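Chapter review: from sequence to fold.
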Amino acid sequence: TPYLELPAFYQAKRDLFREGLKRTKFRLLPSEGSYFQCVDISGVSDLGEAEFCQWLTAEIGVAAIPLSAFYGNGFDQRVVRFCFAKKDGTLHAALDRLARL
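The token string follows.
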């Protein structure tokens, strides 16, 4: 049954993405049981989460979601979320772009 292989599949994606993020100025937050990686953007930009995500998508070509989008009052913690449920080639391309920030 293929679904039994999903935990190992996503753990490999997570490990690949987290290892690649070590080459960046982002501060990694814990990621378990998910296909999202949250990072602190303080070492990369002075922008707020929403503005940073818009800039990152438009100028760098990597999409992220501001955590403030999940709060009714727009609480900005300077944390954004990447999805690593992607093809390895897509992850490597994104990591190369993020490492240049």
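Two observations follow directly from the output. The chain is about 40% helix and 15% strand. The first helix runs from residue 6 to 21.
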